[in-house]
Amino acid sequence: MSGAFFGIFQSNQAPADAVALASMDRAMAAWGPDAHGQLIHGSLALAGRLLKVTAEDESEQLPLQDGPHILAARVRLDNRRELCARLGLVNHQSLPDSRLILEAYRQYGLDCVQYLMGDWSFAIWDDTTQTLMIARDASGNTGVYYWWDGKKLVFSNGIKAILVHPDFQRQLDPLVLAGFLTMYGDPEVSDATLYRGIKKILPGQMLLMRQGALQIRRWWQPEQLGFLRYDRVEDCYADFVTLYDEVVGECLRIGGGRVAATLSGGLDSGSVVSLAAPRLQALGQSLTAFVHAPLYEPALAGPSRTGNELALAQATADHVGNTQVVPVRSEDKTLLWGMARALEIHDAPGNAACHYYWLYDIQQQAHALGAKVLLMGQMGNATVSYAGHGSLWPLLRSGKVPAVWGALRQEEPGLWPGIKRRIIKPIVWPAWSGWQRWRASGPQPWADYSFIHPEFATSLKLLQRMQDADHDPSFVDKGDAAAKWLQDFRQGLFIQDMGGALWMESGASHGLDVRDPTRDRRLVEFCWRVPDAAFWARGRMRGLIREGMRTHLPASVLSCKAKGLQSADVLARYQTEAASIQEVLEDAAKLPIGSCLDFSRIRKTANSIVGGEMKNLVSLHAFGRAVQTALFFRQADL
C-alpha cells in the first residue's frame, strides 16, 4: 500500500482535533487519490490515504481498527509468505499488508519490526497498554516526521501534514540550515529538519508515547553484525546473486499498471534491470528503462567521467533483453523548474538541486506511461557495488604474508600496480590527505563547495562544531584508516540517511511507488557483513557486483572505469537560464533570511558561469544548492 498516514495524539487527554486532521488530510491528498479514511478515538485522531499499487491494496482499510488496536500505515511487505507462515496465517493471499503488520504486533509486540521486510512505516495505538507506537523500516524508501510540543504529538510520513497544523509556527533551524549549506551532519541535530521543532524518525527507529512521555528507541543496529565467513569467495558471490535476484523479484509485486526503471551506464541500476527484465518477461510484461541524456554538449566530461551514458545503458538493455530504453533529454524542463518542483514536493531545498529537472521528468513520463512502480538502484554504492578499501596492511600487520602474495597475484592490472594501489598508497595517502586538509584549512574550509555567509557560520561557531565532532570539512579520507572511515560512511548512510524519505515523497507526488532493491534490509545486512576481500575480486574494485553479475551485464559496463556524469550539460543549462536565475538571486538577497548566503561570491560565480570560465563541477553543484536555497527563501512562508 502506497499513500500516506498522519495523526494527532493529545497526551493531556484532551479530545482530538478533527478540524486540524481535516487540514492535514487536504495537504496529503495527492499522495493517496484512490481512498482515504479517518478515525477519532478519544485523544487520538488517525487518518490515511491510499494509492493502490498491489493486488492486496484492494482490501486495505484506512485506518484499520480491530479490538484494542488501531493502525495506519504506508507499507509494502516483501516477505509476505515467510511472515504469514511465521504468524500461522493460512488463507493469506488476499490479506492486505497492514493486516499482516497488525497480526505481527499482536504476536510479537514492539519486536514485530524485526520480522517486517520491505518499505514500511506505521502508527499503532494499543488501548490495553495506552501506548502509541510509530515506527519506520531499516533502510527502505520511507520516512516519518513528528512535532511534539509537550501536550500534543503531530505525526505523518509527509512533512506537509505537520506544516499545515494550525498550531505549528514555521521557523527555520539555523544549525540545520548551516549543515545543509556545508554538507555537514551536526550530531546535535541529527534527527532535526529545516523547520524548528519538526523531527524525523531515523531509519531503524521507533517512537513510543505513553503516560505523557515520548521515547525514541533504535531497533536496528547493523554495525553489531559480524562478518560472513566463506572458505571460497565464489560461494559468497553465488549467495549474493541468489539473494539479489530474490529481492528484485519481490519488488515486482504489482496489481495493475506497468513496471518501469531508471537506468544509467553504471553497475547499480544496470544490475537491477538485468534481474527485473527476465522476471517480467516470464509474466508477459516488458520493462521500460528511462535514461537521462544531455540536451547540450556535456562540457565537463573527460576520460574519467562519462558525459552521456546512453550508449552504455543501451548496451545493458541489449544484453538483458525485454527492455526498451527511453532517452530523457528534458527539452521542455529547466533547472529552475526542477528546483521549484522539489520545493513543492519536499518543502525544503536539497543537495540534488542540479538534478531535479530530469529526475522529475522521468517520474512524470513513467506515470504518463501507466507505470505504478519505478525501480532504481540508488543505494548501490553502499551495498551491491561498494568499492571496499583494498588495503593489504591489515593482513601484513597480522603476519599473513602468503595471503598478501595471493591477493597481489590476482590483481587484474598486474603485480606492480597492485603493490602501488594496495600497499604503497595506503601509507603515502595520509601525507597527501594531510596536505589537502591543511590546504583547505582556514576560517572557511568549505569555500569550494558552499556559499554560506562567513558571518552566519561564525555566529553558529560552525567550524568549532565540526572540529568537536571530528568532521573533516575537506572530505579527504585518512589513508590506511580508510577502512574505518568507509565503514563509518556506510553506517551513516544506513542509519542516518533520509534519501529514502525523499524518494518516497517524490514518487508519491507522481503517483508512483519508487522501489530500490539495493536498499532492502536483507541485502544491506549481507553486504555489510561481506569481508573487504570479496569487494576486490581479482584486484578489481567493486568486485562483489562485477564477479557476481558477470553474466548478467555486458563486458563494456562491467569493465568501465569512468564514472557517469549526471547533469553533464548543467553549465549550458545555467547559461540559458542566467537571467531568470539572476532575478531569483537578487530577490532573495533583499530578504532578511538572505543574510545566510554569501551573495557576493554567488554573483561572482554566476558571472564566471555566463562567461564560460567555470569548469569546476563541485562549485557548479554548490551554486545549484545556493540558487535553490534562494528560491526557497523567496517563496517560503516564514
Please identify the structural class as seen in this structure.
alpha+beta
Percent of sequence in beta strands: 15-25%
Biggest sheet: strands, sense, closure?
6 strands, antiparallel
Strand order of the largest sheet: 2-3-1-9-8-10
Q: Any idea of the CATH topology of the largest domain?
A: Glutamine Phosphoribosylpyrophosphate, subunit 1, domain 1
* Form type: globular
CATH superfamily descriptor of the largest domain: Aminohydrolase, N-terminal nucleophile (Ntn) domain
In CATH, what is the class of the largest domain? Alpha Beta
| Average pLDDT level | 90
Which regions are unreliable across 5 or more consecutive residues at pLDDT < 50? none
Provide the number of structural domains: 4
**Would you identify the CATH architecture of the largest domain?**
4-Layer Sandwich
Task: Supply database-style keywords.
638 residues; alpha+beta; Glutamine Phosphoribosylpyrophosphate, subunit 1, domain 1; Rossmann fold; six-stranded antiparallel beta sheet; 21 strands; globular
